[in-house]
Amino acid sequence: DSGVTQTPKHLITATGQRVTLRCSPRSGDLSVYWYQQSLDQGLQFLIQYYNGEERAKGNILERFSAQQFPDLHSELNLSSLELGDSALYFCASSVSLSGRGTDTQYFGPGTRLTVL
Amino acid sequence: TQLLEQSPQFLSIQEGENLTVYCNSSSVFSSLQWYRQEPGEGPVLLVTVVTGGEVKKLKRLTFQFGDARKDSSLHITAAQPGDTGLYLCAGEVMTGSQGNLIFGKGTKLSVKP
After folding, report:
1. Residues linked to residue B103 through DSSP beta bridges, in sequence order
2. Which of the residues A86, B8, B90, B106 has the least number of beta carbons within 10 Å of its own beta carbon?
3. CB-based contact B15:B113 (threshold 8 Å)
4. pLDDT at site A6
5. DSSP states of A5-71 as a string?
6. How far is CA B104 from the centre of its chain?
7. pLDDT tens-digit series, residues B27-60
8. What is the least distance, in Å, from the CA of B67 to any CA of chain A?
9. Given CB atoms, is A43 within the 8 Å cutoff of chain B?
C-alpha cells in the first residue's frame, strides 16, 4: 500500500460525457502528479500540482483539467470524452516540488476509465 | 522528443533462469528509474540510478546505468514467480530546475514455476 488513494477504481461512461477522478496523496506529500497509461502510448505524464499550484504540464489535452485543493487532494476532470481516452489514470505523490527523479513518486492503484 | 525504448516487450521464462531487460534512448537523462507494476496496481519504484556507469544491486536484481546516461539494463538472477510483472524504466528530463519522468512502454515478464 503506497498510501495514495484513488477513486473510483473503475469508471464506465459514454462518449461526450465528463468525469472526475479523485486522488488523495500520502500524508505529508505536497506534490501530486497525474499520469495516463494506455497500451499504445505507455505511461505518460499529464500534469503536476504542488501545494495547490500547477507546477508542470506534460501531454495533457485541452479537454482535460486538474486542480489541487487546500487539503491537498486532487481531481482530474476529463470532458468531451472520446473512445481513445479509455485508459488507466494514475495519481502519484511526492514530498518536493521539483519532480526530480531522485524524489520518489508513490503511485496510487489507478482508475480504469472505459469510454463506450 | 525524448523516447525510451524497452526490450524485449514480452518475456516468458522458467523459474531459476536469468534474464536481462534493456532500456535505450538517444537522449541523455539526469537520472533513470526502474519500476515494477503488477496487474491492478500502480508502479512501484525499485531503484534510481544517477551516475553514468553506476551499478546498483537489490537482492537478485542488478541495475546498470550506461556510461553516457542514455541507457540502462536490469538483470535478474534465478528468477522466481514473484518477479512476474511489468518492468518500466523512466528517464528524468530537466527543464530548468523542474524534472519530468519519461517512461518506456515496459517489459512484461512472466516467470513460470
Report:
1. B90
2. B8
3. yes
4. 98
5. EEE-SEEEE-TT--EEEEEEPPTT--EEEEEEEETTTEEEEEEEEETTEEEEE-S--TTEEEEE-TT
6. 9
7. 999 999 999 999 889 999 999 999 999 999 999 9
8. 18
9. yes
